[in-house]
Amino acid sequence: MVITEILGNIYEPEGLVLVQGCHLEKVVLPSADLVKRIQRLTTDHGNEYGLRLPSGSADLKDGDILAIYQDEGRGNAVVIAVLPTDVLVIAPTSIYEMAFVAHSLGNRHLQAQFFDASSEYQAEVMVVQYDHTVEDFLKHHDTPYSRQERVMPVPFRHAEHTH
After folding, report:
1. How many whole angstroms from its chain centre is CA 66?
2. What is the phi-psi region of residue 122: left when phi exceeds 0, alpha when psi lies from -120 to 50, beta otherwise?
3. What separation, in Å, do the N-terminal and C-terminal C-alpha atoms of the chain show?
4. Residue 128 — left, alpha, or beta (φ > 0 → left; ψ -120 to 50 → alpha)?
5. How many other CB atoms sit within 10 Å of the CB of residue 123?
6. How far apart are CA 56 and CA 5, in angstroms?
7. 3-state secondary structure the chain
8. How do the pLDDT tens digits run along the chain, 163 residues long?
9. CA-CA distance, 98 to 92, in Å (whole number)?
């Protein structure tokens, strides 16, 4: 079977209705694979699928519903489950410290995601993929941070740039 569209997401009310009463069959992916429009997928039940999303499609997300089908009279739903990413959660104590850290990491063309106090982090933080040189930088500048495993809402992409 070739999947050409995302049917919904189990973390949204409409998606939850779609999979109600279905057994969830998971396709476990690392965050880096969420940006691939064309790939071969294998579920935790050993079933294989082809993914061929149209050009310009949004990236895959944790909970995306790829297919719903009947198997031996039972409904099954094929759903994306994203592996946690090794990240640094940076929590500067002032706007000056945040600007300094963001500028310094920006010079490395490192992607960052920002969250406010109403997020799951319950603080204003900047999150970047783990990198030992960034961790050394944060330690050297006494910037508060923690290393965590997190399922990120948006996959990190390689930052393209020119000068």
Report:
1. 16
2. left
3. 44
4. beta
5. 11
6. 12
7. CEECCCCEECCCHHHHHHCCCCEEEEEEECHHHHHCCEEEEECCCCCEEEEECCCCCCCCCCCEEEEEEEECCEEEEEEEEECCEEEEEECCCCHHHHHHHHHHHHCCCCCEEEECCCCCCCCCEEEEECCHHHHHHHHHCCCCEEEEEECCCCCCCCCCCCC
8. 899 999 999 999 999 999 999 999 999 999 989 999 999 999 999 999 999 999 999 999 999 999 998 877 788 999 999 999 999 999 999 999 999 998 988 888 888 899 999 999 999 999 999 999 999 999 999 999 999 999 988 888 765 555 5
9. 5
The residue whose two tokens read 């050993």 is: 46
Residue at token pair 């998606």:
15
Q: How many CB atoms lie within 10 A of CB 29?
A: 19
